[in-house]
Amino acid sequence: MKVKYAFVALMVMCLPLVFLGCHGSDSASSSSSSTTDTTTARRFVTINQMTAASTVPWTEGTEVSVYNNTRRTSNIFDTFTASSTSDTTRFTGYMTCKRYNFLEIFWPKVGSEGITSLASEGGDSLLALDISGQDGTLETINSKFNFTYGKAKISTTTATDLTAKAAMIYVRRLMSIGKFSFVDENGDEIKDITSVKIENMCTEGIFDFTTSKISLTPVRQPIVLKPTSGYLTLPVYVALFAPYATAKFTVTTADGSVYSTTEDVVMSSLTAGTTYPFSYYLKKQ
Length: 285
Hints:
Elements: H1 2-32, E1 41-49, E2 63-68, E3 77-82, E4 90-97, E5 102-107, E6 115-117, E7 126-130, H2 138-145, E8 148-157, E9 163-173, E10 175-183, E11 193-199, E12 204-208, E13 213-216, E14 223-225, E15 236-241, E16 245-253, E17 258-260, E18 265-267, E19 275-281, E20 283-284
Parallel strand pairs: 1-9, 10-19
Antiparallel strand pairs: 1-4, 2-3, 2-5, 3-4, 5-8, 6-7, 7-12, 8-9, 10-15, 11-14, 11-16, 12-13, 16-17, 16-18, 17-20
């Protein structure tokens, strides 16, 4: 009988430990399930560029900046990387988001030459774009100044591995490109050009993610195009802010001759994403 009472007493003493163990298990379970597929969290995101939005080709390893236009965070721009050389590539990276957030994509990434975030000046959705660093080649424009913008929407998220998928539903170029050649007063093409100076052309714009538009500033930084050696390759290419641009051209040749436009030329009705051929008569000074 004493053994029976001792066994019952032992069972009573163990009950609190059993309940305590169950309580600890429930807490761990609750913690692991606190993140759901609709929770805002830091996730690994894959953005697929859809065929309908494949007007812009991408190169594997290209980095773009992604801005969550639905949820503003202290980490305003996240860097994503293209996974392949294709116009329907995938971009991957980490960002804080949840399902149905709208994302804005910008190339080149923020912090690249000519691209400055104005977040420190109170404009977390604004970028300053500076095109004064051009050298007259299409290669430099396509690697630095052919600004590109896209929109995406997160369609699916998961709670277990904190991933998300989004579709790029819109992408377009923001700049026009001028393809320039020059002729003298006799109508002959000016050759052996050692420099082209461009003045009175807008060289800075402000891109706003909330409106998807560029506003021009009064900045008119002179641009001097010079070859590393020899003569400039003709025609010369210059990125232009659409829908219009003005400029004064001064051309210097190998023999020291200088030619220039007598007044600012006006390039109107420019469409972003389009290259325009221009040929101007220059007067010898």
